[in-house]
Amino acid sequence: MNSIGFFENLQIKCAQNLKKIKEMGYRFQMNPTVKISRDQHIWAFSADMKPVVSVEPGTVIEIEIWDCFTGQVQSESDTLLTLDMTRINSATGPIEVIGAEPGDSISVTIMDIKPGPKGAGMVIPQWGQLIEHTTAPQTRIFAVQDGTITMESNGVTFPTRPMFGVIGVAPASGEIGTFYADHHGGNMDDYLNGIGATVHLPVFQPGGQLAIGDMHASMGDGEISGTGVEIGGTGLIKVDLIKGNSGGWPITELKDSWVTHGTGSNIQDALKHACEEAAKLLVDHWGFTIEDAFIFLSVAGDLGIAQNCHPMPDGFAVAKMRVPKISRAPKPFNRK
After folding, report:
1. Does domain 34-245 have CATH number 2.60.120.580?
2. pLDDT tens, 74-110?
3. Which sequence ranges are marked TM in the entry (predicted)?
4. For the packed helices 267-286 and 290-300, what is the interaxial angle rounded to 10 degrees?
5. Do residues 170 and 70 touch, judged by C-beta distance below 8 A?
6. Structural domain spans, the chain
7. CB-based contacts of 281, cutoff 8 Å, min separation 6
8. pLDDT tens digits for range 195-223
9. Among 86, 151, 199, 258, which one is most buried in terms of CB atoms within 10 A?
10. Distance, CA of 220 to chain centre
């Protein structure tokens, strides 16, 4: 190789390395100023819950999260029937965001998620679209290493897609268990709430009172058996505050789109709520007529299902409408 070729190759390698550093930097550029243990958690989102920590907008937080079974599942012999059901779906927090008031939005940017080495999935009696074809209860263990998941029962491997199933704030009134989702967020079970996403949550109580849990190493749309790869681990988040702007439901903002959500006791209601929320934002913030919004969402939006394990006793559904970022509506809120 001549000297010119050597330097050309060196420049190419330097550029490639710089690109990798920049990509990694998004996740690791800021050290957390606050760390919260998984032992500081809630089992329900309530209107009057008290924070374990108070932070200013812009704070980076490292949160430790239990798996949804709180460590009770270690082998295939640990099925749902053997578990303490009072210890299901904890959420780490609450976190008070100083200055947050009703009518604002708390924005949670998910900078990184690091799942632990072992997770579990289940077949649960009376749950899911395929339940009549299976023998329940059953548990499967998954090994997680270097971005790859291995289903130990059959050796099948697939990539990790880590996300938070539960992300929410204190509701307007009363108490809502972490198993459920509603206007406050909660158990949204949307795989899009992973690394790089920003979740905008409407504030109903002073400080918002954010809590996060139910980590998955991977979860599919619908979560049809009722579980993803349930796993514990740590997450790195950045909390911000949008004053005077909020949606009626949680909104997830991605690089190329923003995603509204809706919940209901059945999937039809959930789908309708997700569509209505997207249309309302287009009309209220971006000047669309309702007819234009309706047609635009039909031709350019993507309606989908986040959670619809059916049947499920006392169950619910979560739907989503994905709206492409265009110059006319590049984000959910036209901030004033």
Report:
1. yes
2. 999 999 999 999 999 999 999 999 999 999 999 999 9
3. none
4. 120
5. no
6. 34-245
7. 247, 251, 260, 323, 329, 332, 333
8. 999 999 999 999 999 999 999 999 999 99
9. 199
10. 12
Among residues 172, 200, 205, the alpha carbon closest in space to that of 281 is found at 200
Question: In this structure, what token pair is assigned to residue 180?
Answer: 């459920």
- Return d(Cα 308, Cα 292) in angstroms, integer: 29
| Token couple for 137 | 């209860």
84 vs 265: CA distance, rounded Å: 25
Distance in angstroms (rounded) separating the CA atoms of residues 260 and 272: 11
Question: Does 329 score more than 70 pLDDT?
Answer: yes
Q: Supply the pTM of this predicted model.
A: 0.90
Residue reference for tokens 């036209």: 334
pLDDT of the residue at 8: 55
Q: Quick one: which of 111, 105, 112, 113 has its CA closest to 251?
A: 105
Q: What are phi and psi of 311, to 5 degrees?
A: -75, 160
CB 249 within 8 A of CB 261: yes
Q: Over pLDDT 70: what percentage of the chain?
A: 91
DSSP state of 100: -
Helix (H, G, I), strand (E, B) or coil at 24: helix
Q: How many residues comprise the chain?
A: 336
For 247-266, what is each residue's pLDDT tens digit? 999 999 999 999 999 999 99
Query: What is d(CA 152, CA 139) in angstroms, rounded to the nearest whole number?
Result: 11
Greatest extent of the chain over all pairs of C-alpha atoms, in Å: 74
> Would the pLDDT of 26 be above 80?
no
23's CB contacts (< 8 A; 6+ apart) are none
Q: How far apart are alpha carbons 216 and 197 in whole angstroms?
A: 15
b/e code 99-124 from CB counts within 10 Å (16+ = b): ebeeebbbbbbbbbbbbeebbbbbbb
- Residue 181 CB coordination number (10 Å): 30
Class of residue 242 by CB neighbours under 10 A (exposed 0-12, middle 13-18, buried 19+): middle
